[in-house]
Every structure is written in C-alpha cells, then in structure tokens.
Write a structure and sequence with these properties.
With about 80 residues, this protein is of the alpha+beta class. The protein is built from two helices and four strands. The longest helix is centred in the last third of the chain and has 10 residues. The chain is globular, with a radius of gyration of 12 Å.
Amino acid sequence: MIEVFVLIIVKPGNEDVVYEKLSKLPQVKEVYKVYGEYDIIIRVEVENIKGLDEFHDNVLRRINEIEMTETLIASSYGS
C-alpha cells in the first residue's frame, strides 16, 4: 500500500466543488481545505505506483476545476 498527500490548487471559487468531488472517492481517505499557496490537501491510499498513476491520470486530471497538483509520497524512513 502506498500513501500519498496531494497538494491542490483550485480555480478560484471552486474549492467547495472540488472538495465534494474528492471526498466521494474511495482512494481519498482525508480531505482538508487549507490556507496558503494550496487550497486543498488530500491523503490518498493506493496499492502501488500503477494505482497512483491511474488515480492521477484518470481522476485528478479529469476534474476541470483543478489547476495544479503536487504529489508527495509518504516514506517510512526512520521508522
């Protein structure tokens, strides 16, 4: 299982729309609206890198209200 955090910039005024779309997805475990450079942060769980590729290409890129994403893969380093 791979856990990732996706930082999302949304087209202005569409934060609630994107929040609702993301909160309904089974891969998305947590969704937060945040202040700062990014508008939304999500925690995603997928089986493997291929699953992450599919989530990115088939889900995130199809939400027109999203302008940009940055994906951070969680590490077990130091555990």
